[in-house]
Amino acid sequence: MSRPPHIQFDLLANARDSLRQAVELLAWKDIGSDHARLKHSITNAAHSIELLLKERLRQLNPALVWENVDKYPSLEARTVTVDAAISRLKNIGGITFSENDEKNLRSLRTTRNAIEHYEWRTTEKEAKAIVGNALSFAFSFAVEQLGTDLAADFKHDDTWRSLIDELYDFVRAHGARLEAKLKGKGEYPSCCDACGELTVPMRGGSCELCGHWQDVDDA
Q: What is this structure's pTM?
């Protein structure tokens, strides 16, 4: 008799799954109302980021994932909060977080808590800004700190293109992040004809944000 299937998600796989849920809710409009999709995309993005931070802590030392390191690896003991994870990554891991990212992550945490534990009231504009900033941070942190390109998961079909079309707040946030990264490499990026962001390398090629191919003479 065969054994029943075994379900297992490690920290990164768990984060990846929640991020997929967030992105697909935003990219495709065939599930629920706009406001319900925004609500669930925020909680999924927040969950994904929490796990990405914990995965980076685990790489430093698995015990750091636990609030009380002496309790590791008891699943009955509490793991760290997002705030504690950031503090440990900064103080122990030497990882820097921009002031803007820390502010956005605090806003995301507050919003997630309101949704999950009480009631949630906000504007659609604010909700889109919160989730747009969250997705940008998640993709960037995964690449820079975990060596994992989570954005690639959505480029096998039209999901990435649809996300860009549907959520300008993500385009704005991630476009600015990618532009700064290019400039940090000594580039003078050009404006992409497709997405309108300064995310095309100065010698031309594929837009870092939307993937549109652009020759330097066309920029």
A: 0.95
In a domain, 46, yes or no: yes
Beta-sheet pairing, 213-215 with 204-206: antiparallel
* Angstrom distance (rounded) from CA 210 to CA 195: 7
Residues 158 and 200 in one domain: no
Token pair of 39 as six digits: 């609500």
Check whether 203 has a pLDDT greater than 80: yes
User: What pLDDT was estimated at residue 219?
Assistant: 46
Instruction: Give, as one character, the DSSP assignment of residue 125.
Output: H
Does the pLDDT of residue 183 top 80, yes or no? yes
Q: Which two tokens stand for residue 26?
A: 């935003």
Structure tokens at 207: 């837009």
Q: Are 101 and 144 in contact (CB under 8 A)?
A: no
Domain co-membership, 58 together with 152: yes
